[in-house]
Amino acid sequence: MATQKEVIHGHGTVYFIGAGPGNPDLLTVKAAKILMRAEAVVVDRLVSSDILHQYVSSDAKIFSVGKQGHCSASTLQSEINELLVALAKQYSCVARLKGGDTAFFSNIMDELAAFKYHKIAYEIVPGITAASGASAYTGVPLTARGYATGVKFLSGCSRAKISDEEWKDLALMRNTLVWYMASKEWPSVAHKLVSSGADLKMPLLVVEQASTSKQYVHPFLLEDFLNNSTKIGFMRPSVIIVGKVAALYHQFAWYHNQSDRSAYFQSLQKK
Please, which pLDDT band fits residue 5 given cuts at 50, 70 and 90? Predict the structure, then answer.
């Protein structure tokens, strides 16, 4: 029986669900319960296929709306919005399944705006973001006492919007810096940190596909990226942990690198 919330304005409810960084065992209990009763599931690319196989009903309709940088096969945000609105008019329980946490560097605001406009009910179900997954699966506490006073989450896409004064503050490394979507541009980010005063010997970790069976961790120092000698092509998605806490990886790592550095998430096929 549909709840009062599910029939509000003649529409169903859309649940924004964070699928976590990839490991299907890290899905929250609430997320699993909703997926089991969802009639339609709209899925991003960075969602483990194991989650769909283990938790989604075989009767549910699954819609893939993946996005991938510089790939023409990516689904336009406007198309995703239209699909979600249409599904909410057809079904009582719709799951919008997104990688990581729904509110960390995602397009949730565009979809929320569409729902508000069409008076569609929604709930937001948090998930484990990639930074938390990388922290736990490297054994590196992001705000370890004596190493950092806090943590800052940044996106490689926003580096051009950071002022010179902000770069100088970041370079002090009072806080641990966790960079999302920056593996491709990392050498230029490292150069900017150093030119802003960061210690050349500051440790950092590039964590590929955190928490998954394909996780691989690369320990570096900032100076390793200054002479173009580091030419590793990092698997994406990767998060980069920069700061004194990164040195703790060698002491507390418990989840060891796999020899197979293949992709955990399926790439989109170009149109």
Answer: very low
